[in-house]
Amino acid sequence: MFSRRTFPLLAMVLAVLSFVGRDTLAAMDTPVFSGERAMELLRDQCDLGPRPMGTPELEALRVIIEEHARDLDLHTVRDCFEATHPMTGETVEICNLVVSVGPRGGDRLWLGAHYDTRPVADRDPDPARRQEPIIGANDGASGVAVLLHLLEIMSVQAPPRGVDVIFFDGEDAGIPRDPGSYCLGSQHLAETWRDMGGPLADGQPRGMILLDMVGEIDLRIPMERLSLVRAPAWTREVFSRAERLGLAAFVPEPGPAVIDDHEPFLRIGVPAVDLIDFDFPQWHTLADTPDICAPESLGQVGELVVDLVYHP
């Protein structure tokens, strides 16, 4: 996808999926998610360097996501608007990306992750480096990697219901203790998703699954508290799926409340679950690099999401 070494791997993945599709895929209930493939996609994002809101590096990733979808014969819609950067006061363009797969209209599953990264390492142990931007391997690239590989899977075996895959911009440039300065892309999309001609206006969401910080070694995802309190049935359904699949990373007990891209949708009544391991020592530090992530963690998250996609 991103680097030259990735194109042969993508071709191999698609060839294998296509071969399986000709022989047995139609008889399979659930396609197989590859944690190794997702890890490759995570590393490739990080190879671009930090990707904060409004930077050329984020625009480069934006184009790459669009090209990745186009290579899979999937169409991406840009949901762009201008906003004030919370840290600099400058006007910047923010662009959410939406890739819709499967049947049009009707009951739909929304899957999301933010693709921007923190512009400052404000929690780094070295005070002299706290103004440097972070790579965001776990906080950013991990959720995106799972969704990018899911697009590959869905391009071969269409899901039984409509799925909207959302890449949120403007999540991570907020000011501490000012919750409204975070999640700018999701706030805008939650406010406008019913607008005629919008990328999410075709259909009604059954629920949203948000993926954030899902790649850490020794992953442990509890029930994020806002999800559990404001969308209890949907949250319990998601975690019961994980339990039936034997996915040890998912712990069916309450975790901390997190202001994240799911919260604007909870506010307007859309059931939304934030799958997040917030017990992450490298959060908003320069140590958030690919070496602290693992394909096994990405694989467990991907397996759960694939099950939700193919077993409505």
Gross CATH architecture: 3-Layer(aba) Sandwich
In the residues, how many domains can be counted?
1
| Neighbour order of strands in the largest sheet | 1-2-4-3-5-8
The count of β-strands is 8
Rg, Å, rounded: 18 Å
Q: What summary fits the major beta sheet? A: 6 strands, mixed
Mean pLDDT: 92
The secondary-structure class comes to alpha/beta
**Percent helix among the residues?**
25-40%
CATH homology-level superfamily: Zn peptidases
Strand content: 15-25%
Explain the overall architecture:
- The chain has 312 residues and is an alpha/beta fold.
- The protein is built from nine helices and eight strands.
- The strands form two sheets. The chain has a six-stranded mixed β-sheet, with helices on both faces. Strands 6-7 form a two-stranded parallel ribbon.
- Mean pLDDT is 92; it is low at 18-27.
SSE diagram, text form:
Blueprint lengths: L5 H18 L11 H12 L9 H16 L4 E9 L6 E11 L5 E8 L22 H20 L5 E7 L15 H9 L11 E9 L8 E3 L1 H6 L1 H13 L5 E5 L8 H5 L4 E5 L18 H16 L2
Parallel strand pairs: 3-4, 3-5, 5-8, 6-7
Antiparallel strand pairs: 1-2, 2-4
Helix pairs in contact: 2-4, 2-9, 4-9
Please give a quick description of this structure.
This protein has 312 residues and is of the alpha/beta class. It has helices at 6-23, 35-46, 56-71, 137-156, 184-192, 225-230, 232-244, 263-267, 295-310, and strands at 76-84, 91-101, 107-114, 162-168, 204-212, 221-223, 250-254, 272-276. It has a single domain (6-310), classed as 3-Layer(aba) Sandwich (Aminopeptidase).
Keyword list:
9 helices; two-stranded parallel ribbon; 312 residues; six-stranded mixed beta sheet; alpha/beta; Aminopeptidase; single chain
